[in-house]
Write a structure and sequence with these properties.
2 helices; ten-stranded mixed β-sheet; 10 strands; globular
Length: 155
């Protein structure tokens, strides 16, 4: 029986990974990048386009990033003439469409950073999509947001 245990474990592991393989087969992460900020900052934003070439919607519920204690999904909304961030529980990418996490709109907040990544540094960025992680590399670079939006970015 000892010989069969590793075999059943391997089969169990493959079956457990099926949702991850399905999510990776459908979700495509493109143009991922992280905003470089002064080293004194403990939070920053990351951006990526999530493309769904599959026939079913994809639901993003969170994620993780190298150096970050946690990752949150946020949207920028105007309230009383001020732009504010609102945390999102999930973001849906409809079948055959794409959703852009970009400056001034939906974005990923990287919170509780161990340290601010330097411009040019590449971080592993993972999104939890349909219950499974889908990862890509994200280069850290200086931001492209318009100055008026960047200075009014409040929680």
């Amino acid at each position: 029986m000892e010989v069969l245990k590793p075999v059943s474990c391997v089969l169990g592991c493959v079956l457990a990974l099926s949702p991850a393989l399905a999510a990776q087969g459908q979700a495509v992460l493109e143009d991922a990048w992280v905003r470089a900020l002064p080293p004194t900052q403990s939070n920053t934003a990351a951006y990526v386009t999530v493309r769904n070439p599959g026939p079913e919607p994809l639901v993003i519920t969170g994620g993780s990033a190298a150096l970050a204690g946690r990752l949150e999904l946020h949207d920028t909304v105007e309230v009383d003439g001020m732009l504010r961030m609102r945390q999102q529980e999930s973001v849906t990418v409809p079948a055959g469409e794409a959703v852009a996490f970009a400056p001034g709109g939906l974005h990923l907040m990287l919170l509780d950073l161990e340290r601010m990544p330097a411009a040019g540094e590449v971080l592993k960025l993972c999104l939890e999509i349909n219950g499974a992680p889908v990862c890509t590399d994200a280069e850290t670079r200086r931001g492209q947001a318009s100055p008026d939006r960047e200075h009014q970015h409040h929680h």
